[in-house]
């Protein structure tokens, strides 16, 4: 199979690319950054398109490399935006993916796997964006409907809950907690009663593989949306308890030292449609154990290197 992937330099994208390469697929990347990690560097430079706004060059690249499926993972993620973030959010999450979609439709690609977020469903509502980021993800989904109706393309959108895993360079909750635990730090947090739904990255990658199988069988002019959830949300306090039961260093938390954010997600989205033939396999206990073990091993190596 030939895949065009946006967002391959991100956490989920790099893990997905690695899996698709292992399975013998041909990968083409579209990116706006020259920063490529080790896995991406395995891909031939001829298969990587650096988009600088030149749509004619994009057309030429796609004519030579028509993909079977376009997987859209690129995203600008900002939880609480400032006024200077608005233009970049709109371009990154709406304009940029629409330019790519229009180009791949012109070149003859009819299948798109899009990535949304559970934050589009605040208070478990059909549509209620938690933040402007979530609103931009919804807006792009609506734009995809035009191509579904007018060009008879097939789209599957995976609305993903919070993700975590090994070698996550994003400064997100789980990585922050594990790092703070390793250093036995005391951190200030909200009261901790909010629900969180954490999906291990290997399970997320498996969800994309299942979506690929599904879209190959989907009827023309269809747009199917599924939630990618651990199906076992827990409170933030419970997450810390589990981490402390696993980690040799205990995380010290000053609960209630911070207020809840505006539009804090207290209860996660429940009314989603589950992706057929997919279930999460990695429990939160197993996932955290992987991270703690890796972190402990790194610390041991670092200590040994310093001693030498």
From TrEMBL:
Pfam family, one: Epimerase
Start and end residues of each NAD-dependent epimerase/dehydratase domain: 4-214
InterPro entries listed in its UniProt record: Epimerase_deHydtase (IPR001509), NAD(P)-bd_dom_sf (IPR036291)
Pathway entry: Bacterial outer membrane biogenesis; LPS O-antigen biosynthesis
Family stated for the protein in its record: Belongs to the NAD(P)-dependent epimerase/dehydratase family.
Protein name listed in UniProt: Paratose synthase
Organism the protein comes from: Cellvibrio zantedeschiae
Lineage, opening ranks: Bacteria, Pseudomonadati, Pseudomonadota, Gammaproteobacteria, Cellvibrionales
Gene: prt
């Amino acid at each position: 199979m030939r895949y065009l992937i946006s967002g391959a330099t991100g956490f989920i994208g790099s893990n997905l690319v690695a899996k698709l390469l292992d399975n013998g697929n041909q990968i083409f990347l579209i990116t706006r950054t020259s920063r490529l990690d080790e896995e991406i560097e395995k891909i031939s430079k001829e298969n990587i398109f650096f988009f600088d706004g030149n749509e004619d060059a994009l057309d030429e690249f796609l004519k030579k490399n028509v993909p079977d499926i376009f997987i859209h993972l690129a995203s600008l993620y900002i939880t609480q935006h400032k006024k200077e973030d608005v233009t970049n959010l709109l371009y990154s999450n709406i304009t940029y993916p629409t330019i790519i979609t229009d180009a791949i439709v012109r070149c003859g690609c009819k299948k798109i796997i899009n990535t949304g977020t559970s934050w589009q469903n605040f208070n478990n509502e059909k549509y209620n964006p938690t933040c402007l980021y979530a609103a931009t993800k919804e807006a792009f989904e609506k734009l995809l409907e035009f191509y579904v109706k007018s060009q008879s393309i097939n789209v599957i959108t995976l609305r993903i809950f919070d993700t975590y895993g090994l070698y996550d360079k994003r400064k997100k909750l789980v990585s922050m907690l594990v790092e703070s635990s390793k250093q036995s730090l005391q951190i200030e947090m909200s009261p901790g009663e909010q629900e969180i739904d954490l999906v291990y990255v290997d399970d997320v990658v498996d969800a994309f593989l299942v979506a690929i199988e599904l879209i190959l069988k989907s009827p023309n002019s269809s747009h199917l949306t599924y939630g990618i959830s651990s199906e076992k949300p827990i409170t933030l306090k419970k997450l810390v308890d589990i981490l402390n039961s696993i980690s040799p260093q205990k995380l010290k938390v000053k609960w209630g030292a911070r207020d809840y954010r505006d539009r804090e997600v207290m209860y996660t989205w429940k009314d989603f449609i589950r992706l057929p033939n997919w279930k999460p396999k990695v429990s939160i206990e197993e996932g955290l154990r992987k991270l703690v073990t890796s972190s402990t091993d790194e610390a041991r190596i670092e200590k040994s290197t310093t001693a030498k």
